[in-house]
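User: What would this chain look like folded?
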Amino acid sequence: MSQTIVTRFAPSPTGFLHIGGARTALFNWLYARGRGGKFLLRIEDTDRARSTEAATQAILDGMAWLGLDHDGEVISQYARGDRHREVALELLEKGQAYKCFATQDDIESFREAARAEGRSTLYQSPWRDADPASHPDAPYVVRIKAPRDGATVIHDQVQGDVTIRNDQLDDMVLLRSDDTPVYMLAVAVDDHDMGVTHVIRGDDHLNNAARQMLIYTAMGWPLPVYAHIPLIHGPDGKKLSKRHGALGVDEYQKMGYPAAGMRNYLARLGWSHGDDEFFTDAQAQDWFDLNGVGKSPARFDFKKLDNLCGQHIAASDDAALLHELQGFLAATDQPKLQPEKSALMEKAMYCLKERAKTFPELLDKAQFILADRPIIPDEKAAGQLDSVSRSILTQLTPHLQTVTWSRDELEAVAMQFAESVDMKFGKLAGPLRAALAGRSATPSVFDMMLVLGRDETIARLSDAASESG
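Assistant: Here's the prediction, encoded as structure tokens.
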């Protein structure tokens, strides 16, 4: 029977969900979902001073917005402290760890002497092989017995084989003198207990793998598969930071990017499948593999993000898009669309979603729906409504009273009318836009008429025609 794939995402709740963390979560999600496996979520909240409920919630909200569902309960690392201690004590019992009574002063003296003699400053505790009978009644830490010679090889699915000489690894502390477990121990124990088969994380954790492998080996546990993915850089090739723009996933939601476009873009950030740029979730799950992840840092590119998001908006199901639009309005503290407007928006989606890259752009195109009579034209549109134009609108209105309300019929009537007053239709379109939407950049005049319906269209044209000069 083949092994069930289990991946995990393990953020620290000290702030928002960073865009780099979101991509790590996405890679883990894609890898597990594409193989019928499990994707778990662990909150690494052992840093009690910096971990907050609000940050945990921000991570959960960010993942929910991105559509990255996890299996089972959210696991708190802090809540598992007793289990981490139990493993440290088991290693002590097995002779794979030892009590070290060295004080900070002892360690500093060792390092000073090593520096003076040109030796490695990696601390070597005199307590490693001390007889327990010689142990003083004093505070101690528990250290693992790291191998002193040979090498540790991390077989990494992205970076290839990474070799670390064992004389570069110190006897890492497992339990501090106050009995609290260290992060390295907690991560290894949690990954093992959660049955994680694949550890996919940022390459800033590559050195941690060698240290966590010490615990696996000492406990006789099978190692997970490691895949350390390069970090994301800004367009200038430097590590992504505040000066490059938005860092938190929540900010991208508030900028109005659709979640499907965001997933597609983040998947392409450092991973590729041939020349494919635009793809669905099903394709991403089907295609995603670790051998498609590059070794070099990926560069964040807003133009590419805009382009992909535009394609996803255009390809979206209208009802689903409307639902996500309501989510965007809620996230940005804007009033929810009322049922009547909402129904018109869904009816209009076919002409709104083409060439809109974000929800603000989509809403901008939908101004003719969102505005209520009387329509107040902006400065540019008002220029289209002079006395001649208003007179023409007055003449056009009766023709619309009786026409069959379909695009072909509306176009035919408008063209015939323009011809009868010796005008090119382009000249008529400006006043119509101004009357229907109050602006000069809008969807097609006929799309607006079809969405608004006969009564509202005629009412708006009558309002504009009767405006006093």
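DSSP finds 19 helices and twelve strands in the chain. If you want, I can go into more detail on any region.
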